[in-house]
């Protein structure tokens, strides 16, 4: 069973994906890390994020060991990832990789922006996790504070709004709700409540063995 989870920044899709993967004993791929790793490879090489040929080459050269770098997690890399991810050549280079992962024996949980729409259009379960921009900014703000990277709330909110617009407005695999996705709005849901809502959907489809 493939569980496809999409949604905007800080909606809680990563937290949910991890918990579902542990619960159903499925491998999990945070696909945002792939785009973050492409951006980091370019920045490390002193190259411009808008250099399409270099970005495509970096995406083709990506291998799993790049995904463990702690520098991938910061908000600067999220912003950089959203710039390289708008380039169709980068997306095309990462597509097979993601599909191979999704094709692994028992199934998989993948989270990102275009899993239900492009990467795994036949996924057994598609969830679209969202929350108001203000609530997402509060979460990200709290997270950054906790990591000792204090930033003004307003700056976090404007970063989120800019990234939402870039991800939704691009022509290559824009962020949108797949027709057959179940929307989970977590504005008023904590991680436990979101998990319960999601397992209700998955179990309703017969679970990973169904
Ligand atoms: O992966 P994504 O950027 O969508 O979000 P996340 O990293 O899963 O969650 C962002 C933050 O919101 C984390 O600190 C979560 O603990 C928190 N969170 C929450 O407050 N309520 C939820 N329902 C889910 C996550
Ligand atoms: O955790 P957060 O939602 O902040 O970021 P992420 O999921 O790591 O994604 C970083 C950026 O990568 C997003 O803003 C998207 O532009 C891009 N991305 C994408 O285009 N397609 C995906 N499947 C995953 C991420």
TrEMBL record:
Residues given in the record as ATP binding sites: 7-15
Alphabetical keyword list: ATP-binding, Cytoplasm, Kinase, Nucleotide-binding, Transferase
GO cellular component: cytoplasm
Subcellular location(s) of the protein: Cytoplasm
SUPFAM superfamilies, A to Z: P-loop containing nucleoside triphosphate hydrolases
Molecular function per GO: ATP binding; CMP kinase activity; dCMP kinase activity
Domain Cytidylate kinase: 3-191
Predominant location category: cytoplasm
Reactions accelerated catalytically: dCMP + ATP = dCDP + ADP; CMP + ATP = CDP + ADP
Enzyme Commission number, as recorded: 2.7.4.25
GO BP term (any one): pyrimidine nucleotide metabolic process
Any Pfam family the entry gives: Cytidylate_kin
Entry similarity comment: Belongs to the cytidylate kinase family. Type 1 subfamily.
Protein name: Cytidylate kinase
The species this protein was found in: Methylobacterium platani
């Amino acid at each position: 069973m493939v569980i496809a989870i999409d949604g905007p920044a800080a909606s809680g899709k990563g937290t949910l994906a991890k918990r579902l993967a542990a619960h159903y004993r499925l491998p999990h791929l945070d696909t945002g890390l792939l785009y973050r790793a492409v951006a980091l490879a370019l920045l490390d090489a002193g190259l411009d994020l808008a250099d399409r040929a270099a970005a495509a080459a970096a995406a083709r050269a990506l291998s799993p060991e790049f995904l463990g770098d702690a520098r991938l997690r910061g908000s600067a890399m999220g912003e950089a990832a959203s710039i390289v991810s708008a380039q169709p050549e980068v997306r095309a280079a990462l597509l097979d990789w993601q599909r191979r992962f999704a094709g692994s024996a028992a199934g998989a949980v993948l989270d990102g922006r275009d899993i239900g729409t492009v990467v795994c259009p036949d996924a057994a379960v598609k969830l679209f996790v969202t929350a108001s921009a203000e609530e997402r900014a509060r979460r990200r703000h709290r997270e950054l504070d906790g990591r000792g990277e204090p930033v003004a709330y307003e700056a976090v909110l404007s970063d989120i709004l800019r990234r939402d617009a870039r991800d939704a407005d691009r022509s290559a695999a824009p962020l949108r709700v797949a027709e057959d996705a179940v929307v989970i709005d977590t504005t008023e849901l904590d991680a436990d409540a979101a998990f319960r809502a999601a397992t209700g959907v998955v179990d309703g489809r017969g679970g990973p063995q169904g």
